[in-house]
UniProtKB/TrEMBL annotation:
EC main group: hydrolase
Ranges that cross the membrane: none
Record's keyword terms, sorted: FAD, Flavoprotein, Oxidoreductase
GO biological process: butyrate catabolic process; fatty acid beta-oxidation using acyl-CoA dehydrogenase
Protein name from the UniProt record: 3-sulfinopropanoyl-CoA desulfinase
EC number(s) given by UniProt: 3.13.1.4
Acyl-CoA dehydrogenase/oxidase N-terminal domain boundaries: 6-116
Catalytic activity: 3-sulfinopropanoyl-CoA + H2O = propanoyl-CoA + sulfite + H(+)
Keyword presence, Phosphoprotein: no
Highest taxon above the source species: Bacteria
Naturally occurring in which organism (per UniProt): Oceanibacterium hippocampi
Amino acid sequence: MDFALTDRQRELVEAAREAYRRVLEPYAADGSVEGVRALRRVMAEQGLLGLNMPAELGGVGLPLLDTLLVIQALHACSPLCGGLAHRTSTGACGAIEAYGTAEQREKYIRGICSGEIGISIGMTEPEAGSAATAMRTRAEIVGDEVVINGSKQFVSAVNVNDYTVLYCRFGTTGRASDIGAVIVPHDAPGFQHSKGTVNMADELLFELYFDDCRVPKSNILLDGNAFGKLISVYNAERLGSISRMLGSAQASYEYALDYSQQRRQFNREICDFQGIQWMLADMRVKLDAAQLLTYRAAATAQATGLPEALETSIAKVFVAKAAKEICDDAIQILGANGYTKEYPLAHRYAEVRGGSIYGGTMQIHKNMIAARILDRKISQWKKD
Ligand SMILES: Cc1cc2nc3c(=O)[nH]c(=O)nc-3n(C[C@H](O)[C@H](O)[C@H](O)COP(=O)(O)OP(=O)(O)OC[C@H]3O[C@@H](n4cnc5c(N)ncnc54)[C@H](O)[C@@H]3O)c2cc1C
């Protein structure tokens, strides 16, 4: 067991930071749709998209742990860059890479890695949040097409993306075994999306509407019996979003550490006060522990193929809580400055706050951990 990063991993992290400083920073300041698309293309040129996607499909071909380290480093520089690195590496492309046909892999993975296209994940519905398998959106194969009816909500990045990997029902049994996935182009007839709802971190979350939406049958990714398969790949997506939380926690810790050595009160630096020192020590302990749990899940995945569900949930629960606390302490160390939007910490806090909700809430992950350690199937469904 070796807890140290290799020289190569350290170089990768430094190269990502250097690419941000040298090239990406001006692009990352423009959050408009065109700005994000331009940033995506520049990141592709820098080899910062499709980090763990196969090299023969235009990806960088990194192992999962190295991918997460780069996502964390980029996210610490800029949440926009970290988000793009994540979504194009362990995001929707993971399911296409694992289960897509040769044509789908060639078209979508290559397009994602070159920065030309972006793909969202559409799973949550108004009546199916934590109870994801209660989804109702239905896909029916009619001739050479799939006809889709239903709706989704809280879907990220739809305005800057071109497709959504849509989780939907192919059968009518009402069981999880009906669930499959279709790749829906955002210009498909019968597809519409809302203007977006602004969340705490000033990001947009979209509703998707499917009204006899028609896409070619060749866009089917999995036509049923697929929920378990989709979720096992989704655990890699979760580790990507966990790494983004680590990036924000790291950036907040480093900012507060530096500030505490500049700001003077009572004629001395505030880091001289034990109250501040203990907060800094707590932040560092939590950051190290959060990183180690995440790296363990990634290292196991490298050995076994996909991330292990228990290790992923353990990392998720710890990191989501630790990141909130680290960002909160960082705000405290900056006093009123930390609470204003002139400084970056309020945004970092707002952003990591979402980590307790997306990708399965904290409570759902604790349910999954309990089921594993008790070795019981603990159904959450009320019996009639
Ligand atoms: C920033 C952000 C980005 C997102 N991006 C996407 C996206 O790209 N695509 C997508 O499909 N979705 C996305 N989501 C939606 C996300 O997946 C859902 O919000 C999440 O699954 C929870 O569903 P819900 O919000 O409906 O909460 P609910 O399921 O209504 O839960 C409400 C509360 O009840 C608790 N609860 C529910 N069931 C149980 C239980 N059995 N045991 C204990 N507690 C329980 C929950 O933990 C929570 O505290 C995003 C959400 C956020 C915040």
